[in-house]
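Narrative summary of target 7.
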Amino acid sequence: MAEDRSVVLRQEAGALGELTALHADPVFYGRGVPRGDGRTVVVVPGLFGNDMYLQPLRGWLLRMGYRPVQSNLLLNAGCPNRLRTTVEDSLRRQLVRRPGPVALIGHSRGGMLCWAIASRLQQDASHLVLLGSPAAAVVRMMRSGASAPTSTVARSEVAAAGARALKLMDPDCNVPECGCAYTEDLCRPLHPTTRVLSIYSSDDRIVRPGACRVDGAEDIQVRGSHAGLAYNRAVYPHLGRFLADI
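Modeled conformation, tokenized:
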């Protein structure tokens, strides 16, 4: 991943074009997409992101017959245990109003938070969708006790920025050495009935595509930017099919 930074920036800027293409695609308006059963779907942003950029995805989920829930994260950065608690609190408030099985969709770092929550929900987590997320690689490292450099799963500059944010926002956090509830969540197996879908881009220069593959899950490779996976029109038919399969 020692590519010129300008190449990466140009590719990621293509996410705007992917959003435009999505709005022009019939799949965005439900053509050929099976309708949902009204279940709650939590949507969690990636590193340094918040709920704003995921609004097109949440709007689509609502049109398809689901009940999308925001993460309530002001910024996905810092201590993952604190962030996981914020998302989980938002989810539980929704479940008081409408109990039932939950689906989770996490983009990039958001996929790790969704994995942790799914492991806590156990059989109540029906679907886990990872969009360009290295969650599986991180889980494997935590379970094995390995201390591989973060550059093995993500671009080194991105990993370093995340580490700096952690020290700034939560200076007492030394995850995963802390052994907090979040690390326990990632080490706990998902329930056998929780179905997992990982969609990643072969063009991704932020997260290594190989880090996104999940053993025993459905892995789908598309083309496009890392940020644009939330808007990639090739992603949406797979999302619709997967979430409707219960």
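The longest helix spans residues 80-97.
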